[in-house]
C-alpha cells in the first residue's frame, strides 16, 4: 500500500495569517515512514516530491501516482535517496545497488522500474526520497559518505559546529536540478543553517533524524522579518518555500538531510540573513 498527497504553494502573505495547526498542515510531513509502505508528498513549490520507503517483509515498487500524469514515475523526473535505516537493496531497471546507513543513490530520468527491499527484515531499511522534474537523463549512481564533498562549519561557542556532507550535488555528480546532502551536528551544538538564508531560485526540504528519544527540534521558517516555527520529532520532514528561511535548533544534537531543486545548481546561491536582523 502507498500514500500520495499533493500540497499547494503558499505566499508569504498567506503564511503570516496561519496558526500552529495551519503551519503544520501545510509544511510538516509527520509520517515519512510506515512499515511496508511508500509515502510521498508532492509540493507545488518547484513540483518537488518528499517521501520515504520502508520495506520490511516485502519488496516495494516505486508507484506512479495519477497526479504525475506520466507513463511511469521517472518519465520526466529524477530521484535521489539517502538510507537512514538498515541495509537496503535498490533495483533500478535490473541494476542492483546496496546502500548502507547514510549512503545515497541518484536515479536518472527515464528509469522505468525501481524497487526497494531490506537486506534483513529484522533491521528494515528506511529510504528517504526526494524527486524533482528533469529535462535530461544522467547516469544512475551510488554515492558513499567517503565520496561526498565535506565542509565543516560553525563553532562550539556558537552551538552550530556541524559537518556538511554534500552527496548528490553537482560537484560530485551531474543532476538536472535535484541536490541532496546531510548535515551532522557535533555534540553540544544544536543550531543548523545559522546564520540563516533564503534562495529565491530554489525551494528546499529538511528531514530530521537521529533526534534522541524524548528530544525535539524547533524548525524556523518564514520571511526573515516575519519568522514562524514548527516543533518536529525524529524522522519527520518539512517543506521550505523559496522565500523562506530554513533553520532549526534542537534540544540535543541531531542530523538532518537537506534536499532542494529549482533554477540553479550553485550551492552557494543564497541571500544571507544577519542573525540580529531576524524577527
Q: Can you summarize this structure?
A:
By secondary structure, the chain is mainly beta. Helices cover 5% and strands 44% of the residues.
Number of helices: 2
Strand content: 35-45%
Assembly state: single chain
The order of strands across the largest sheet is 1-3-4-11-6-9-12
Q: How is the biggest beta sheet arranged?
A: 7 strands, mixed
Over all CA atoms, what is the radius of gyration? 18 Å
Number of strand elements: 24
Average pLDDT works out at: 95
Overall, the morphology is globular
Structural class: mainly beta
- The low-confidence runs, each spanning 5 or more residues with pLDDT under 50, are none
Measured between the Cα atoms of the first and last residue, the distance is 43 Å
Instruction: Spell the H/E element sequence.
Output: EHHEEEEEEEEEEEEEEEEEEEEEEE
Helical content band? under 10%
What does the model show?
By secondary structure, the protein is mainly beta. It contains two helices and 24 strands. The strands form five sheets. The chain has a seven-stranded mixed beta sheet, with no helix packed on it. Strands 2-21-18-23-15-14-13 form a seven-stranded antiparallel beta sheet.
Amino acid at each position: 500500500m502507498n500514500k500520495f498527497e499533493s500540497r499547494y504553494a503558499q505566499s508569504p502573505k498567506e503564511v503570516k495569517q496561519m496558526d500552529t495547526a495551519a503551519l503544520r498542515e501545510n509544511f510538516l510531513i509527520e509520517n515519512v515512514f510506515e512499515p511496508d509502505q511508500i509515502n510521498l508528498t508532492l509540493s507545488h513549490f518547484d513540483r518537488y516530491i518528499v517521501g520515504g520507503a520502508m520495506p520490511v517483509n516485502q519488496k516495494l515498487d516505486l508507484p506512479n501516482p495519477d497526479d504525475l500524469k506520466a507513463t511511469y514515475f521517472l518519465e520526466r523526473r529524477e530521484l535521489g535517496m539517502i538510507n537512514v535505516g538498515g541495509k537496503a537493496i535498490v533495483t533500478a531497471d535490473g541494476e542492483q545497488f546496496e546502500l548502507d546507513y547514510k549512503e545515497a543513490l541518484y536515479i536518472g530520468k527515464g528509469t522505468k522500474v525501481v524497487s526497494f527491499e531490506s537486506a534483513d527484515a529484522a533491521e528494515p531499511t528506511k529510504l528517504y526520497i526526494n524527486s524533482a522534474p528533469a529535462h535530461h537523463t544522467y547516469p544512475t549512481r551510488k554515492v558513499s559518505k567517503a565520496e561526498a564533498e565535506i565542509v565543516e562549519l560553525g563553532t562550539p561557542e556558537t552551538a552550530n559546529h556541524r559537518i556538511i556532507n554534500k552527496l548528490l550535488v553537482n560537484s560530485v555528480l551531474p543532476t538536472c536540478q535535484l541536490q541532496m546532502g546531510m548535515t551532522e551536528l557535533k555534540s553540544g551544538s544544536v543550531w543548523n543553517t545559522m546564520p540563516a538564508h533564503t534562495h529565491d531560485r530554489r525551494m528546499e526540504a529538511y528531514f530530521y533524524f537521529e533526534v534522541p528519544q524524548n528530544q525535539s527540534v524547533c524548525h524556523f521558517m518564514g520571511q526573515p522579518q516575519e519568522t514562524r516555527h514548527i516543533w518536529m520529532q525524529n524522522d519527520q520532514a518539512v517543506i521550505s518555500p523559496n522565500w523562506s528561511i530554513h533553520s532549526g535548533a534542537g534540544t540535543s544534537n541531531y542530523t538532518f538531510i537537506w534536499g532542494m531543486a529549482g533554477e540553479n545548481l550553485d550551492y552557494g546561491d543564497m541571500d544571507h540573513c544577519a542573525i540580529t536582523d531576524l524577527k
